[in-house]
Amino acid sequence: MEQLRQVIVGQDRVVEELMIVLFSGGHALITGAPGLAKTLLIRSVAQILDLQFRRVQFTPDLMPADIIGTEIIEEDRGSGHRELRFISGPIFTNILLADEINRTPPKTQAALLEAMEEKQVTAGGKMHPLSKPFYVLATQNPIELEGTYPLPEAQLDRFMLNILIDYLDEDEELAVASRTTSGFDQELTAVFTSEDMAEFARLVRAVPVAEPVARYAVQLAHATRPSSESAPDFVKKWVSWGAGTRASQNLILAAKARAVLNGRYHVSCSDIAAVAPPVLRHRILTNFRAEADQVNVETVIQQLLETVKEPQSNLS
Which pLDDT value is given to residue 313? Predict the structure, then answer.
């Protein structure tokens, strides 16, 4: 965090949520307007964690082979023998920044999302394992909708968190403007290795969670589903589709990472509540009635946190 604050001003919540994803071994969707230093943040994190970083600008003409790689025919000049050789694409890295993922057609999106899930790609009938660790940090531009291909709900569910980047306040923006218009140039120092990151992911999963805390996460996920008996009336009114089982899993896993990052070795319900917005905001689909009432997903999540009560432990 000390290294990162040398180049990134403010955005403490965003940085914490990004650290939660990386230390959990997951993937993140980053939503924000242009010019909010999304690429700088991710590149800086890669330098500090000593991870290989690549960026792909997604466009409407981008093909799966442009990301995964392709096979070429290579000829031995001496013998004249020809053979197929696989040329790996930018997906063979540790951190892949998929910039404006909603600007590329579904075929290319599916190729990337399949690699995220399987941790390998197939070309010419051969499987090629991806680098370890492997993270996809995909950005979306929420302003322009024309010429975009929004990710389906089932594809969005593959991302652990949806991190929302907002504008800086006046003092923070002044610091950024002063720093970036001068000769300021800060060298970042790597503090971890890729092996450390893999070990941290195992450590996070080893953090114990009490049954009432895990139940609170499950109850939050259940409450987002309009068809559930436990769903509040406002959910049945404003939500057309709620979060699935993966939401419960990610609520608990993200809460584990948050607890460790805050120096604790157990998870509390406050950890679950803190990670609920980034875990749930891309898994809840509001309906036309919510739009008519000017209600967005953030409002629904906030009301859920106020409505769903923390379970009481039976332990004395």
Answer: 58
Question: Which H or E run includes 255?
Answer: helix 245-261
Answer yes or no: is pLDDT of 233 > 50: yes
As given in the structure block, the two tokens for residue 263 are 């120096």
Residue 158 belongs to what domain range?
A: 4-180
Residue 242 has pLDDT above 90, yes or no: no
Both tokens assigned to 116: 């995220």
What CATH number is attached to the domain comprising 161? 3.40.50.300
Residue 315 is predicted with a pLDDT of 43
pLDDT of residue 131: 83
Residue 235's closest CA among 243, 244, 223, 247?
Answer: 223
Tell me how far apart the alpha carbons of residues 92 and 72 are, in angstroms, rounded to a whole number: 17
Query: Would you say 220 and 304 are in contact if contact means Cβ atoms under 8 Å apart?
Result: yes
